[in-house]
Design brief:
It is built from 3 helices and 4 strands, in the order βαβαββα. It is of the alpha+beta class.
Amino acid sequence: MAGDRPEPVRLTLYGREGCHLCDEMAAALQPLRAAIVFELRIVDVDGDPELQREYGLLLPVLAAGDRELCRHVLDADAVRAYLSGIG
């Protein structure tokens, strides 16, 4: 039954407009989505003063809830390990 399906895993990519590393991480995540189902939410930290203070120039950051999976460049192995550990 469709109601028995688990919620999709949600990852959040914290970045900002015009950040080439942020764009690169988002693009690098796409091949993983073909093999592992997850939902990706992209958050522009410049829209939230608290996130601006927290992340500053330390972007992009890929997180699962409060857990940081990688920063600056995609660590595909870390993302796969996280996703396979909860699946």
